[in-house]
Write a structure and sequence with these properties.
The chain is built from twelve helices and no strands. Bound molecules: iron/sulfur cluster (SF4). Iron/sulfur cluster (SF4) binds next to loops.
């Protein structure tokens, strides 16, 4: 780890000492469902719909008996009918294949409909206490911009962060990056002017619009030319 990467992680820790999950859940099933719903939706919106959903369908067995059409009205404000279908299909597989308990391995979790690597890692990290770094769009973007990773895919980002950061900090580092991405380092118009980590940032844009693809291309070009902004 370079001195700069150490300073970035230290800076994030100081900026977000209380960083933690913003989704509400109390058990692995709720974590799984809430995380499926959170795709392309805000955590605040998900937190508005899950209390009624979990009240009426509190476990995989209850959810497995429902039809997607019954579930959709609960979750429609989170978008996509496919989310309701995936929640029901995942619950049925949990009942039929995993004895009614949410599995606790990446391999098993990613067999569930609608569950990709990021969702599986959220469940592993926050419901089973396993070491994992879930990489979502915020983690991918902010880690790249701050020089903690230099990756083109979320899988590559995950591997690079796991190699860089001590395992004991994986969970918190995930939250630091998400919190910075949500509060300051927005995708299209990051608030670079007020960013406390601006001096470490490869992509500091001084407030102009950042297009993520163009941003990656620019960084690649600058790497080739041996320059940075
Ligand atoms: S300087 Fe701008 S692009 Fe860099 S981390 Fe801060 S907000 Fe993000």
């Amino acid at each position: 780890m370079t001195q700069q990467q150490k300073a970035v992680l230290q800076g994030l820790a100081e900026l977000y000492p209380n960083a933690g999950p913003e989704l509400h859940f109390t058990n692995p099933f709720e974590t799984l469902v809430a995380t499926i719903l959170a795709a392309q939706c805000t955590d605040a919106r998900v937190n508005m719909v899950t209390p009624a959903l979990f009240r009426d369908y509190p476990d995989p067995a209850a959810m497995a008996k429902a039809e997607p059409e019954e579930i959709f009205p609960y979750v429609k404000s989170c978008g996509f009918k496919s989310k309701a279908a995936n929640i029901v299909a995942a619950s049925r597989m949990i009942v039929e294949k995993f004895g009614g308990r949410v599995p606790d391995t990446l391999e098993e979790l990613t067999q569930l409909p609608g569950v990709g690597r990021k969702t599986a890692n959220v469940v592993l990290a926050f419901s089973f206490g396993k070491a994992a770094i879930p990489v979502d769009t915020h983690v991918f973007r902010v880690a790249n911009r701050l020089g903690l990773s230099d990756a083109r895919t979320v899988e590559e980002t995950e591997r690079q962060l796991m190699a860089l950061i001590p395992e004991s900090d994986w969970s918190q580092a995930h939250h630091w990056l998400i919190w910075h991405g949500r509060r300051v380092c927005h995708s299209q118009k990051p608030d670079c002017e007020h960013c406390a980590l601006k001096s470490f940032c490869k992509s500091a844009c001084q407030g102009r619009m950042i297009n993520p693809k163009a941003d990656a291309k620019r960084r690649a070009r600058e790497r080739k030319q041996g320059v940075s902004c």
